[in-house]
């Protein structure tokens, strides 16, 4: 996943100062932005007023889009540092390539997890022969300081654990839910789950009071703790709950539950980099433009993505909300 904005603004995030210590309802409206040649996404994090949920620092939702006669997702090779990328699909396929030589087609309910660490480049595209509907989410997880320079890695998990209870099933992307754990590598206390609700389901999801949470509706109208949340919108929930009431308000539906311990460290996000200082980001940009450090993505038919110009203002880490 890339931020393709040619004039990206620096985002200063992290720290516990503005974490909601108790339960809240904060609806995060999406911002429509282009992704590649023909795809538009709804950007939910970072947003005006909310920049992180636990270690989750970037969330895009896209589709369902009919790409029958279109190329679909086409994101050229681009760099990352200091984060993990999570590819998650409800419909379609995404072909992943990276500087490690990885080549993998990710399909619905399969986890594509890339740890950028010190540096990696990758591309994402709909295969030439692809399904007619593309629908999914792309997310970033910030790496803590002790692991932000780790060696880059790619993981693919075709079979993920599932929690079942009356009215719902929950597929575990990352972390743990109700005693069930995902095989995906994590570096901070975190959870990511895709929860499918049956028609008329009225359920309670077990959560941790010291985690902060948000819910991204993928399909249907879902009532999250009594608040209706439409597809492509996300509700920030704060901390302090032990269970989360959810209800399928009008037929079956599904949502992603994202949570984790509030991220203590303060960060600077700019373009596709998560760092601690502006100097670190400037060096990563220079290395990408000169061909150092990130490796070569083989097999993508097209040019790699050039980095935007650095902003004139000095980049520095601050708090979690604007």
From TrEMBL:
This is Pirin family protein. CDD domains: cupin_pirin_C (cd02247). It comes from Actinomadura chokoriensis. Residues 193-293 form the Pirin C-terminal domain. It comes from the Bacteria. Residues 1-19 have a biased composition (Basic and acidic residues). Residues 1-25 are annotated as: Disordered. SUPFAM superfamilies: RmlC-like cupins (SSF51182). InterPro entries: Pirin (IPR012093), Pirin_C_dom (IPR008778), Pirin_N_dom (IPR003829), RmlC-like_jellyroll (IPR014710), RmlC_Cupin_sf (IPR011051). Belongs to the pirin family. Residues 48-141 form the Pirin N-terminal domain.
